[in-house]
Amino acid sequence: QVQVVESGGGLVQPGGSLRLRCAAPGFTLANYAIGWFRQAPGKEREGISCISSSSGSIINYIDGVKGRFTISRDNAKNTVDLQMNSLKSEDTAVYYCATVLSCSIPLATIHKMLAGPFGQGTQVTVSP
Fold it and tell me: How far, in Å, CA of 42 to CA of 31, rounded?
């Protein structure tokens, strides 16, 4: 199983931006579809975005982040990034990435398609 590592979280004001990174030392991320998830306090973890393997031709977002978040992959760097703009207080959560079996499914059920474990997560706090 691919062990991923998330990074890039932090404290940011509403309207600000952060760029999260998913890496997998020792594994070739290009071979895997990658999902980004988040878990807000008191809530269940939810899938928020997905990018397919290789060229990343299939990309999905939940409605709540569409137009603000951008998922991308850099196969040369062996990373998958989540650029988050126009952050809102409701984006506060621990963010995780994981390999998934497919992006061709609703994000509401992508947690059932995990191909590997989550990393330790990275905290994103949006606060004035």
Answer: 34
- The amino acid present at 121, given as its one-letter code, is G
pLDDT for the residue 111:
87
pLDDT of residue 112: 87
State the maximum Cα–Cα separation within the chain, in Å, rounded to a whole number: 39
Residues of the chain with pLDDT under 50: none
Are 49 and 107 in contact, with CB atoms under 8 Å apart? yes
Per-position b or e across 51-88, b if 16+ CB within 10 A of its CB: bbbeebeeebbbeebeeebbbebeeeebbbbbebeebe
Quick one: which of 22, 6, 3 has its CA closest to 77?
Answer: 22
